[in-house]
Design a protein that fits this description.
Strand 4 and strand 5 form a beta hairpin. The protein is α/β, with parallel strands linked by helices. The strands form 5 sheets. Strands 2-1-3-13-6 form a 5-stranded mixed sheet. Strands 11-8-12 form a 3-stranded antiparallel sheet. Strands 4-5 form a two-stranded antiparallel sheet. The termini are far apart. The chain is built from 17 helices and 14 strands.
Length: 457
Amino acid sequence: MTTSPIGRRGFLKGALGVGALAATGSLAAACAAPGGGTGAQPSRLAAPSASGSAAKGEITIWNRSGDLFKVFDAAIAKFREAYPNVKVNHQAVDIDAKLANTLISGTDVPDGSFWDDAKIGGQAEHLFDLTDLIAPYKEQTSAYKLSVNTVDGKIYGVPWDLDPGLLWYREDVLEGAGVDPASLATYDDLLAASRTIKEKDPKTRPIHLEKTPFLSQLWLEMLANQQGTSLTDAQGKLRLDSEEYRRIFTWIQTAVKDGLVTHAPYLEQADVNTLDNGQQVFVPWAIWWSFAPQQLLKNTKGKWRAAPLPAWTPGGARSGAMGGSSFIIPAKAKNPELAWLLYEFLCFKEPGYTAVYGPNDVYPGGLSTSIPSYTPAADPAKPLFKPIEALGGQDLWKVAVEAGASIPAAAPIPWWWAQSVDYLGNNMQRLMEGKMSPDQVISESAEKIQKNLIDRS
């Protein structure tokens, strides 16, 4: 069965929507307090008094339309078996256009909704504080997912997926050039391997660099997360001017100067063509790139493989997070306790998380564009999705969950993150075009983000 890209492209659409929300003023109300709140104290949700067949009532749950909606719909059927007296109205909604405004107005809010991690911190005042409910699962949940859902020490999202960065590579090309994938331990090793491949075949420009400003900045944050940093710290202080970011920008500059990059927009036709004709050999990207060999690439299907990302320093983390989504419960929800039971079931309970990630009618091999952030569900020895034929039968599950386990914690994503693409994302493109230096990217971007976004909030 052929399906369209689901959650990962949904994430991209959603994250891009943050800028649109800002233009309508929806985010303006979220600028006065740390984490984007206005100072109101969110309600703390307590554990439901009833469970199983004793839990009764009706909830409205929002999800994005498309294949991911169908996956969750099937998983919710399993929830109904466990909670037969809870009626779930599962609705496909344009969340990016509707949810933030609905939370602010407080009118016709759902009992729960899927939402991008990038948006949760900016709307914390309109959400239930889930700290007490997450507590029993906290020690077994990805530190990264907890950190991006936490504002001022309180957890506002139910952590769902984890999107580990991986190094996608052409196994046949590396073999022909005598490059052992296991030797790609650092980003310097990746440059050296790319030079070797280019010497063997001068038409190659082995490393993918993203031509879309938004996605290039999202990719940058994955590389920064690998090094244990992010655009701001937990207090919202900008930390772009740092050794970690300078290291990334210098590496990009070197790769560009040495003619080792293909500068193309994510999976648009120019990108697909150069992936399929052998020009691109390495794609350091999130797990959701797995969609490409499965459904877009024709000539090279079956020739791509996944490995952990190289480390920035010897012995450093071999992955970082790129994107992700969680579930939220609005503070004005009618039946928040029942919404919690649903999300607890889907994220932390069997057969909930298996129903989400395991084989289903939409994805017969299972959902392979992310992995669970709950570590008992992410057992390398107990795959929830099957080996992928388009990756030559590789066990992507094992590679991804082992990479995911190395992802460092981060800080809450600032509400203005998408707006900063006008500065940082655009300047990254100038760096990739050889028009700016690393120091210029840092100084100019930091100045404008501080002046136009942070100081105005």
